[in-house]
């Protein structure tokens, strides 16, 4: 009799487990079906609702203070204090406080620059310019603000994320990844050119990629406090913010070399 009860108990446990597994599979299938049927515009709307509707109305300005760590293929190299500011859609300034001199990367909306110590100033180009674009024309904030003016298309839709591509009126294409479970935008990336792979001798795309994490709520806006930058698959820098402030009435003279 005890053997019968033991066998019956195991059978009952197996039945409950099978039912739970089936229910989980049905729920996962339903979630996947819902994700698959989502349009690119709906994915952006879902992300906007999560990040804060104020982004669609436009934030006047913001200032972030923290640190930036530089990386090479061998790992982290050095960490410096940093301030990142943005005003409107085109003004941006990143100030990196290195011991020898203050490095400024910025744009006043018409001119973009790299400067060292305020005396050596050059026009922003290459990786410097692409960083500025990631903070302005290609930024997540501009995606939310200008969704109706962008041409959106699907790149990939799966159980983990919905990847969309946005093309603006200057033919710039930027990809954004919306997390399936949290609705946060976890990645921004764009192609900057083409080069030859030294091993396969084939053509490969050069890619700028930014990963967003450590989200916190600041003034009702979901804000990433960690931003990692990858250049052609190699981590180049990591920004970690101590504080972020919105609508602080930044003046135009803050955006200069």
Give an overview of the whole structure:
- With 257 residues, the chain is an alpha+beta fold.
- The protein has 2 domains: 1-37; 39-254, outer membrane lipoprotein receptor (LolB), chain A.
- The model is unreliable at 2-34 (pLDDT under 50).
- Strand 3 and strand 4 form a beta hairpin.
- The protein has 5 helices and 13 strands.
CATH superfamily of the largest domain: Lipoprotein localisation LolA/LolB/LppX
Q: Which H/E pattern describes the elements?
A: HHHEEEEEEHHEEEEEEE
How many strands in all? 13
The N- to C-terminal Cα distance equals 87 Å
Mean pLDDT: 88
Domain tally: 2
Q: Write down the CATH class of the largest domain.
A: Mainly Beta
Largest sheet: 13 strands, antiparallel
Poorly predicted runs are 2-34
Roughly what fraction of the amino acids lie in strands? Answer: over 45%
Radius of gyration: 23 Å
Task: Quickly count the helices.
Answer: 5
CATH architecture annotation name of the largest domain: Clam
> Percent range for helical residues?
25-40%
> Overall 3D geometry?
globular
Instruction: Please state how the strands of the largest beta sheet are arranged side by side.
Output: 6-5-4-3-2-1-13-12-11-10-9-8-7
Structure classification: alpha+beta
């Amino acid at each position: 009799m005890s053997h019968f009860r033991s066998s019956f108990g195991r059978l009952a446990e197996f039945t409950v487990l099978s039912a739970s597994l089936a229910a989980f599979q049905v729920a996962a299938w339903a979630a996947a079906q819902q994700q698959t049927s989502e349009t690119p515009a709906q994915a952006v709307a879902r992300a906007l609702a999560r990040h804060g509707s104020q982004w669609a109305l436009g934030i006047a300005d913001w200032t972030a203070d923290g640190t930036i760590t530089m990386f090479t293929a061998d790992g982290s190299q050095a960490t410096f204090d940093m301030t990142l500011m943005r005003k409107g859609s085109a003004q941006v300034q990143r100030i990196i406080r290195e011991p020898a001199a203050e490095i400024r990367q910025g744009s006043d909306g018409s001119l973009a620059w790299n400067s060292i110590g305020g005396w050596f100033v050059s026009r922003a180009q290459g990786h410097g310019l692409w960083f500025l674009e990631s903070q302005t024309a290609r930024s997540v904030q501009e995606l939310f603000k200008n969704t109706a003016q962008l041409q959106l298309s699907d790149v990939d839709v799966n159980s983990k994320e919905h990847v969309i591509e946005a093309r603006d009126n200057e033919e710039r294409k930027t990809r954004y990844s919306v997390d399936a479970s949290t609705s946060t935008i976890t990645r921004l990336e764009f192609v900057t050119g083409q080069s030859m792979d030294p091993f396969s001798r084939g053509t490969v795309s050069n890619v700028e990629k930014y990963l967003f994490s450590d989200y916190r709520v600041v003034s009702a806006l979901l804000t990433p406090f960690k931003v990692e930058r990858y250049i052609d698959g190699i981590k180049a820098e990591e920004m970690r913010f101590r504080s972020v402030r919105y609508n602080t009435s930044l003046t135009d003279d803050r955006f200069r070399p």
